[in-house]
Amino acid sequence: MLQAPRAVFAALRPDDDESAQARQEPILALCVLAGIAGVLSTGVAARLLDDPALDNVTVALWAFVGGALYGVVGYWIAGALVYGAARGFGSLGSYRRARHIVGFAAAPLALSLFVVWPVGLAVFGSDLFRTGGSDSGAGGEVFDAAQLAFVGWSAGLLVIGVRAVHGWSWPRAAATVAVATAPLALLFVAERL
C-alpha cells in the first residue's frame, strides 16, 4: 500500500463478495491501528494523566479500546462521506468499495503509531498525556506537525484511491475528497479549540 498505492486501489474495482471478504481483515487491522493513533492525538489524550487516579496502564488500555472503537466508527463514517461525495460527482460505486478505499488510505495513520508515537514517547515520556510539561513548546509543535504530515499522507492516498478506483481526473478526485473530508476537518478544528 505504501509503495504502490495505485495498484492496490485499482485492485478494489472488483466489488464482488469474495474479493471484499478477502480485504476485510487487513482493512480492520489498518482501521484499528489508525484509530489508536487518532485517539492518542486528541485533546482528551493530552490531559489523561492530569487525573492522579489514572496511570500509564490505564492510558494504554484506554488507547487500545477507545482507538479500536474510534477507528471502526471512523471507517464507517468516513466511508459514508466518501460514498456520498463520490455519488455527488457521478460515481456508481458501492458504499462497501468507498469504505475499502478509506480503510486502505488509513495506512499512513496506522504507520504513524509505529513511527511518530515511539519517538514522541522516547522524547517526552508521559508528558504527552499531561497538560504542559516537556511536550509544550517547539518540540511539541514538531511532534504535532509530524502527526499532521501522516494525516496529509492519508488524505493524499484517499485522492489517489478515488482516482484509481473510478478512473477520474485529478481535479474530480480531489474535489470528491475535499467534499468528503470537510466535515471531518471541521470536527478536528472544533476539537482543538
List keywords for this structure.
mainly alpha; 7 helices; 193 residues; single chain; 75% helix
Write the layout of secondary structure elements.
Blueprint: H1 5-10, H2 17-40, H3 56-88, H4 95-105, H5 107-124, H6 138-166, H7 170-192
How would you describe this structure to a colleague?
The mean pLDDT is 94. The protein is elongated. It has 7 helices and no strands. The longest helix has 33 residues. The protein has 193 residues and is mainly α. The protein has one domain.
Work out the count of structural domains.
1
- Tell me the number of strands: 0
How large is the radius of gyration? 17 Å
Overall pLDDT score: 94
Rounded to the nearest angstrom, the distance between the terminal CA atoms is 34 Å
Please state the overall shape, judged from the principal axes of the Cα atoms: elongated
Our count of helices gives 7
Quaternary structure: single chain
The major pleated sheet works out as: none
Helical fraction = over 70%
Order of helices and strands: HHHHHHH
Q: Strand fraction band?
A: under 5%
